[in-house]
Amino acid sequence: MTIEGPNHVKPEYRIPLTEVLWQLADDDLVIAFRASEWLGLAPHIEADVAFASIAQDEMGHATMYFELLEALGEGSRDDLAHLRPSAERRNAVLLEIPNGSGSYLHEPHFDWAFTVCRHYLYDVFEALRLEALTQSSYLPLRQVAQKAIREEVYHLAHQELWLRQLAEHSKLTRARLVDGLSQAMSWAGDLTWAAPWQAAFEEFSLVPGYRALQQRWRDAIDRKFREWGLPLLKAEMPLNGRDGRHTRHLDDVLSTLSEVYRLDPTAKW
Amino acid sequence: MQPKLSATVMKERVMTALAGVSDPEIPTISIVDLGMVEDVRVHEAPTRVEVDLVPTFLGCPALAMISQRAMTAIRTQLGLSSDQVRVVFSTRSAWDTTRIHPQGRDRLKAFGMAPPPKVSASEFVAGQTSVACPFCGSEDTKLENIFGPTACRAMFYCRRCRNPFEAIKPV
After folding, report:
1. Overall fold of domain A10-263
2. Which of B59, B125, B147 sits opposite A49 (nearest CB)?
3. What's the pLDDT score for residue A269?
4. Contact at CB, B150 and A53, closer than 8 angstroms
């Protein structure tokens, strides 16, 4: 089944379609913001360069998803990115957690190990989700996925490299990595959470095999964690971002991100 | 008022105009060389030109500048007003590095940048390819970082001439 574009969308298809687009757009927007906060601060020049590209790629992907929502009449892409309150956001909570204590402009004591783990957990999931989306029934989404998946190969490779290095380098790096991983896993539950109402993602072939993604993600990370001798921790879900429940950190992200836009929506960059 | 042009001549002129639109960061290479021109449609009466471009990387900040430059080049070349020309980015087909024309690959090298190796991204990140140094031609090079100064480039080091260099990474 293929739905060619916005004009062919029926009401029963529209609801799950917009829901999957909110998740995709909000995930990438928030992770792009967190990645951008490493600019000038990453512990290694090559990681700094890498995070600049990663932030840019993810922001580009978020833009594409917001454009698909705009085409469905949900509002302008900039308004959707900047003005929706946190209760309407569908990103996984893991992605909004700060990089560490302090802030970008004031005493940024960021946690590199946590960041690498967070990105790794997300990138593994994103690769599986995009692979499924390359078979999506919604043609415009399929086309974006086919493009984005090629760029994501590099993100995952970079995080794998860092995880392995931190796991194998010394007792200290390993201890910090395990600490970062347990922090990340203490929030990671909603990343792959498949609510009953999300059965529609499969029913309409929006995200084929959606409910199996959770197990496939688990298998993929466990395989690597075993290889690197890392603990296999449970993915906890203190809050469910897919249901619009977030930490106050998301409000901080949105207030920084949309500061200029709220001041002057007509400002040109 | 300019004389009316036939569709064939219009299309040729549009392509000439686009061949003169360079990548803002790699001035030796045009968007035609890069394989970014997906479709050109012309209408004789009323005169109208529509161009579909494909983005190289979705988050590339140069995209807006590129479409703006393409628009200006076409208007100048054909003497058209802004409402007669439409340039849009389309994701109907996914750009990949095999779309770069042979001439484009040569022009990248001339600029001091290695053209993308003809392998998949997975093979590339696994280091299963050799990339020739654009300065001395040696294959004795090392992948230093799969990320570079822009989203589309990776960093290499040439052991022979001891120069760092950039390569377009395969996608």
Report:
1. Ferritin (1.20.1260)
2. B147
3. 61
4. yes
